[in-house]
Specification:
The chain is an alpha/beta fold. It is built from eleven helices and twelve strands. The chain has a six-stranded parallel β-sheet with strand order 2-1-3-4-5-10, sandwiched between helices.
């Protein structure tokens, strides 16, 4: 990797984006993150940050876990947001002609707003000469909301309720990949000669397997639901040579659990210090961790 590059990360406050930003900065790069969580709406972006960078990482998207992208009531909003976002960003990228990498998903092409907009965007990214990374089931700590994914949801239920609660029967399979491993693979792809890559975990695991591991680490039981979850059995074939994930599922869950405990500690301290739930929920997690809200955590 060349040092001293100026990187523009679209969606740099998100699950994968935050890890990518840290990895790039650790390598000595100058990084600008544009993210809705920090108040920058890419649907109304201007050219300036794109012109000022050496290359662009296009991660921003209206997405979330299965409970969000499968929500019937969320479909039109997801469709509109992603059409507006991709139209604006691709228009800028087409005009400024900077190297860029677009992140898509193994769910591209699924019959919902997320899958259809991802499929169109990955094809257009390639048409514009960008690199395309297709991801499988990336996980890590996320604050609980309608968009959070299954692993942090399972961990939080175990910590808060004393039982690991799964919405489904847990039979659906995933290729889980920890966020830091994902970031390293994205960098490998962008720095190398390949135009595309499939990036995912090394094996298929059931959500029931994950729930069991969370329960084992927390020392609590597991409650499985009755409904069947959705699985998309697309096997990654265009894999990066000489790259393998380094974080095991057990180690990844331990990292998520540590972050979840820290989050709950700050949430409890915020209540004690009189910070409103709305203010705490709206504040970026990075701001909370560095004490921007004035929360006293002992």
């Amino acid at each position: 990797m060349d040092t001293g590059m100026t990187e523009l990360v679209l969606g740099g406050d998100g699950l994968i984006g935050a890890s990518l930003v840290c990895a790039l900065r650790s390598a000595g790069h100058r990084v600008t993150s544009l993210d809705l969580r920090s108040g920058y709406d890419l649907r109304f972006a201007d050219d300036a940050p794109f012109v000022a960078c050496d290359r662009v990482w296009f991660l921003a998207w209206d997405t979330g876990g299965a409970k969000y992208i499968g929500d019937t009531h969320a479909q039109h909003g997801i469709y509109v947001n992603n059409c507006q976002l991709s139209s604006k960003v691709f228009d800028i990228l087409a005009r400024i002609d900077k190297p860029f990498l677009f992140v898509t998903s193994q769910l591209a092409g699924q019959p919902n707003a997320y899958g259809l907009t991802k499929l169109l965007a990955e094809h257009w990214a390639a048409r514009l000469g960008g690199k395309v990374a297709r991801l499988w089931n990336v996980y890590g700590w996320e604050r609980p909301d309608v968009k959070s994914h299954v692993v942090p949801d399972l961990v939080l239920s175990g910590l808060i309720k004393g039982r690991v609660c799964c919405r489904t029967n847990g039979a659906e399979r995933r290729r889980f990949l920890y966020k830091d491993d994902c970031a390293s693979a994205l960098i490998r792809l962008f720095d190398g000669p390949r135009a595309t890559a499939d990036i995912g975990g090394s094996e298929w695991l059931t959500v029931r397997d994950v729930a069991g591991e969370v329960g084992r680490q927390l020392g609590v039981g597991v409650d499985l639901g009755q409904s069947e979850g959705i699985e998309v059995m697309v096997t990654p074939e265009d894999r990066l040579p000489d790259w393998q994930p380094t974080v095991t599922l057990s180690a990844g869950i331990a990292k998520v659990t540590s972050d979840a405990r820290e989050y709950l500690l700050h949430a409890n301290a915020a209540t004690t210090d009189g910070v409103s739930p709305e203010t705490f929920a709206a504040a970026p997690w990075a701001d909370i961790r560095r004490g921007a809200l004035g929360i006293s955590v002992s």
